[in-house]
Design goal:
With 297 residues, the chain is mainly alpha-helical. It has helices at 3-10, 19-23, 29-43, 45-68, 88-97, 101-120, 123-127, 133-167, 182-211, 217-235, 241-244, 265-291, and strands spanning 172-173, 179-180. The protein has a two-stranded antiparallel ribbon with strand order 1-2.
């Protein structure tokens, strides 16, 4: 966001204000700052185009499956079950996009969060308003988290709507073999979506840290994508099994555990704990870097 956008939210109260009043941040500053940040994120054409690409994937999957009618066991997880219940389109799309498309979308926003401001020269003026660096970094990350939720939810909603429209709904057969009603099925898809969104938010914290290291947002985005891909590669090497559960992407595929009865909360809990640990460590690393950073542009 630009300094001009945030200036009204943190401007000096005027000559008649007391010194204490001038030093005290105005109430609601964080919410106004966050609102401005979200408008910038969701208002950029490139981000809108990126979200559009994310929504194309579940549509293509539903149409292709409708035309080809794959037999049971064919294709990736959930794909062969799409014809039984349209909600599986959302799950199949999430399974396909968690490897690259959704991490790339989150990495782009995270990489641009601080480096983008420095690149166009607004970071120096933003901090001169003045804006507390810790609060600025907290709002930046809050925007990344909200984008992660919005992007993941968008894929899930589009997949569910298109899937139900093409294949219908009704009872959903779980991976454990028993069936649940449509309302329960929708709740499980929602849980899977939120779980993945929080996992992507932890990747966003890594991107926020990388963004404080450079003034080139494209470079920061590429670095996040490389970290994401490297984690998947390491997770696929059997000889590194001791390392797998500590990788940031290892537990992402556990979103499918919501389709078991009972739900495998142990795997989901471990995944959320790992995501929270990465988010905390890298946000603190970003704070340590940014709090004392000499901003020259």
């Amino acid at each position: 966001m630009s300094a001009a956008e945030v200036a009204p939210a943190v401007a000096s109260p005027g000559p008649s204000a007391t010194a204490a009043g001038q030093a005290r941040p105005q109430r609601g500053w964080a919410l106004r700052f966050l609102g401005s940040e979200l408008r910038l994120i969701f208002g950029r054409r490139r981000n809108i185009a990126g979200l559009g690409v994310l929504t194309v994937v579940p549509v293509i999957m539903a149409v292709v499956v409708r035309l080809s009618q794959p037999e049971a066991g064919d294709g990736p997880d959930f794909l062969s079950s799409i014809t039984d219940n349209g909600l599986f389109v959302a799950l199949a799309a999430l399974g396909v996009e968690l490897g690259l498309f959704l991490p790339l979308a989150v990495g782009t926003i995270a990489g641009d969060s601080v480096a983008g401001e420095a690149n166009i020269g607004t970071l120096r003026y933003l901090l001169a308003v003045p804006v507390d660096r810790t609060r600025l970094l907290a709002v930046k990350y809050a925007a990344i988290v909200l984008f992660s939720i919005a992007a993941t939810m968008l894929v899930s909603v589009v997949g569910s709507v298109v899937g139900v429209a093409i294949f219908g709904a009704g009872d959903l057969t779980l991976l454990s073999g028993n069936q649940v009603g449509f309302a329960d099925a929708v709740l499980r898809v929602l849980l899977a979506t939120l779980y993945l969104a929080l996992c992507f938010a932890s990747l966003g914290a890594i991107g926020l840290f990388v963004s404080t290291l450079t003034e080139q947002p494209i470079g920061a985005t590429i670095a996040v994508v490389i970290i994401n891909v490297l984690s998947f590669i390491l997770d696929a090497i059997p000889q590194l099994s001791w390392l797998h559960e500590w990788l940031p992407t290892h537990w992402w595929a556990s979103f499918g555990e919501v389709l078991r009865d009972p739900i495998a909360w142990d795997a989901l809990g471990r995944g959320l704990l790992t995501a929270a640990a990465y988010a905390l460590v890298f946000w603190l690393a970003a704070w340590a870097r940014f709090a004392g950073k000499d901003v020259t542009s």
